[in-house]
Amino acid sequence: MFFFESDALRDIAVSYKQAYVTAEPFPHVVIDNFLPDVVTEALRLSFPSPEAISWKDKTHEHSKKLASNKEADMPSAIRQFLLQCNSSTFISFLEELSGIASLIPDPHYEGGGMHQIKSGGYLDVHADFNYHHMYHLDRRLNMLLYLNKDWKEEYGGHLELWDRSMKTCVKKVLPIFNRCVIFTTSDFSYHGHPVPLTAPPGETRKSLALYYYTNGRPEGETGGISHKTLYQSPKTHRNVLLRHVKQLLPPIITEIIRRVRKKL
């Protein structure tokens, strides 16, 4: 049975904390080989297929994915790992890494737990819901762990981090096996993967997600009101897709399009 070790986590926090607080477009860190490979492999092998359990189908205008936060549907390896991520040892690590004090875990995994996306799936760029209505707490931190072994660049599924003005994708993170992403959440921490997944049949984008809260938060991180997920407009989504298509076109085609548009 796996348990986090406080000394090992403290070393990680000390190594990454400066990079975390200075990261753009908002505080975050990407940590590869986060767990012992044998632990991550056990999580991957036990991860339910799209047909294995009653997943919540999150298909709507801004999303096409599967999700489950129901403990009864979680394999024992995943259930045990999520409990470890809500432990005192792990919370102390997150506080040291992020500089956010008095973090509170969510035993209900609201919006989190197991996430899975099939080919063609996507999640529009958004800012997360910012308030836990059951506990009356402010959402402050996200943790994602990817379980996708031998994941190739052409499969897509990158986690995209966008600037506050939603004009530029500042960073793309390929969701490879045993890669952990931790980031601060606010009304301006825009992220998602708006380009539909292009993985081959049978390959899905698998991840575990946990969210952490505090009682109150600094001024300026939100508009002062609680809200659900703030998806960006369909127009913004189309612009995101066009930017990605443009990157794939030969330069001469891009130049021709630019000249034609200029004459119109």
UniProtKB/TrEMBL annotation:
One of its GO terms (cellular component) is cytoplasm. GO terms for molecular function: peptidyl-proline dioxygenase activity. Residues 114-213 form the Prolyl 4-hydroxylase alpha subunit Fe(2+) 2OG dioxygenase domain. Gene3D superfamilies: q2cbj1_9rhob like domain. InterPro entries: Pro_4_hyd_alph_FE2OG_OXY (IPR044862), uS12_prolyl_hydroxylase (IPR051842). Pfam families: 2OG-FeII_Oxy_3 (PF13640). It comes from the Bacteria. Coiled coil: none annotated. One of its GO terms (biological process) is regulation of translational termination. PANTHER family: HISTONE ACETYLTRANSFERASE COMPLEX (PTHR12117), PROLYL 3-HYDROXYLASE OGFOD1 (PTHR12117:SF0). This is Proline hydroxylase. It comes from Candidatus Ryanbacteria bacterium RIFCSPHIGHO2_01_FULL_45_22.
